[in-house]
Amino acid sequence: MATQLYRLLPLLFLPFILFRRGASPPLPRQHAVIGDDPAGLHPVVLLPGNTCSQLEARLTDAYQPPSPQCAAAKGSGRWFRLWKNSTAMQDPDVAPCLADQLRLVYDPAARDFRNVPGVETRVLGFGSTRGFLADSPANKDLCMGRLVEALEQAGYRDAETLFGAPFDFRQAPAAPGQPCRAFSQFSRRLRALVERASMKNEGKPVVIVSHSQGGYFALEFLNRSPLPWRRRYVKHYVMASTGPGGFLLSMQKLASNPSAALSFGSAFTALPSPKVFGPDAPLVVTRARNYTAQDMPEFMSAIGLPPLAVTLYETRALPVKLNFRAPVVPTTCINGVGVPMTMKELVYWDGNFSKAPEVVYGDGDGLILLASTLALDTVIGDDPRQEYYKSIKLAGTSHAGVISDGAALERVVSEILGVHE
Ligand SMILES: *[C@@H]1O[C@H](CO)[C@@H](O)[C@H](O)[C@H]1NC(C)=O
Ligand SMILES: *[C@@H]1O[C@H](CO)[C@@H](O)[C@H](O)[C@H]1NC(C)=O
Ligand SMILES: *[C@@H]1O[C@H](CO)[C@@H](O)[C@H](O)[C@H]1NC(C)=O
Prior knowledge:
It is built from 14 helices and 15 strands. The protein is an alpha/beta fold. It folds into two domains: 12-53 and 125-417, 3-Layer(aba) Sandwich (Rossmann fold); 55-123, no CATH class. Helix 6 (145-153) crosses helix 14 (406-418). It starts with a helix and ends with a helix. Bound molecules: 2-acetamido-2-deoxy-beta-D-glucopyranose (3 copies). One 2-acetamido-2-deoxy-beta-D-glucopyranose binds at residues 73, 80-81, 85, 87-88, 94, 97. Keywords: Acyltransferase, Signal, Transferase.
């Protein structure tokens, strides 16, 4: 039964599957502590990657449990840990409850994704980095735990100069004009947090740092904030391990579990984008036909997604992908390259998408292809409105390694400290 959770949430579990690796790398060399003079620091706000934020839930009387066990906390008003709750995940009686309470539903009347009726959720610890997942060494690597440690060594202090902006990773920013309560609420809170961080630090503008999925939230947030606000409040944006192209693993996950497509607002966020992958780049190969990033609607139909899913892709997700653009604040992009095991093509030769595909690999960070990382230089770097852009490509560094491997981490921290010079 516990496997049901994994069937339901393959997209969410993705980074854990990929980056569970041996022992943690050593911490970077200690930086010159400039925190003796905390007044000298620009406040930093961190946005972590997928599944790194923690969610609490409570169940109202309206909750229709899939089985009687799932009704235990119903109506009690008690907030409990929904994500990440390892006890519940490992209990075969409770895991299906967790899966049911974690999924979202698309509400056609509201034209938006929301919780299952009767489930209320909230993000834990907004404003602090203490709410980021750090319950195991692997999560610490993946969820900015090492970066937080390194920044604290350099003099940063939680909730004084260092702030966290966790978000509901089941959701995604929707195209302008499409209702998206989750992203609107997150944007309001992040705007207030940035202003508060600045105010607490003599009006200094902040440095925003994102990793992976956090980049989609940060970039949309910046691009939808008035330019004078960005200029006043954002000293620098450091975007780690995000590219405009998405990645192939999200196509494979969708093919192996089409029913997840309508259970998460973020299911399409990382699908390969036509902004990067052209009509000559087959991403999925079958005997009968190939699918490029332009053919995503046909691919979705072929793997069995309902027409509603295709419509949501075209109206909610695709416009955001096509609109990936320069934030028009000083920006540094940091990405891993030179990891040869990065998915480049999925071969379902006999056209059976329920089977595991044969994979053709290329260069990248283990998740994001080099082509997507290089596209940052044109999409952001070549935008004439973008006055300062720097790209750092870290050889032999993985998607999570960018914010956790010793040398990479040192580089990220020195970029953050470098904005003071
Ligand atoms: C984990 O989930 C179970 C079942 O939903 C709940 O009873 C428990 O309180 C949760 N743990 C925490 C720390 O909230
Ligand atoms: C599909 O792509 C493969 C290799 O990427 C190519 O060899 C093949 O000719 C293409 N097939 C079709 C039907 O276009
Ligand atoms: C596709 O593959 C799955 C898993 O191997 C198998 O159970 C199923 O019968 C196959 N479908 C067809 C139409 O061959």
